[in-house]
Amino acid sequence: MEKDAVEEVVSETANLKETVVTAEDVAEAAVFLRSDENKYVSGMNVVIDGGYSVTNPVLGRNIRKFFGDL
């Protein structure tokens, strides 16, 4: 899929409306993890998805809506 099409699918079903994740969002998280700002952070996974994978109960339905049965 083209970038714009993927962004449309994610935006339509996302928890954070009118927000699209960018490469810069991921880079900023990496910079934070490398910085002294995180001196007390250890042993966690950083999921940069705006809560999509945890709180979106219709994820499966939306995937089928846009992509059919894979």
Present the secondary structure layout:
Blueprint: H1 3-13, H2 23-34, H3 52-55, H4 59-67
The backbone outline, from C-alpha atoms, is elongated
Largest sheet: none
Quickly count the domains: 1
Count all strands and give the number.
0
CATH fold name? Helicase, Ruva Protein, domain 3
SSE pattern: HHHH
Helix tally equals 4
**Helix content range of the residues, please?**
40-55%
**CATH architectural name:** Orthogonal Bundle
Question: What is the name of the CATH class?
Answer: Mainly Alpha
Proportion of residues in extended strands: under 5%
Q: If you average the pLDDT, what whole number results?
A: 80
InterPro entries: NAD(P)-bd_dom_sf, SDR_fam
Family: Belongs to the short-chain dehydrogenases/reductases (SDR) family.
Pfam family, one: adh_short_C2
Question: How is this structure best summarized?
Answer:
Belongs to the short-chain dehydrogenases/reductases (SDR) family. This protein has about 70 residues and is mainly alpha-helical.
Notable characteristics:
70 residues, mainly alpha, Helicase, Ruva Protein, domain 3, 51% helix
Overview of this protein structure:
- By secondary structure, this protein is mainly α.
- The protein has one domain: Helicase, Ruva Protein, domain 3.
- The protein has four helices and no strands.
- InterPro entries: NAD(P)-bd_dom_sf (IPR036291), SDR_fam (IPR002347).
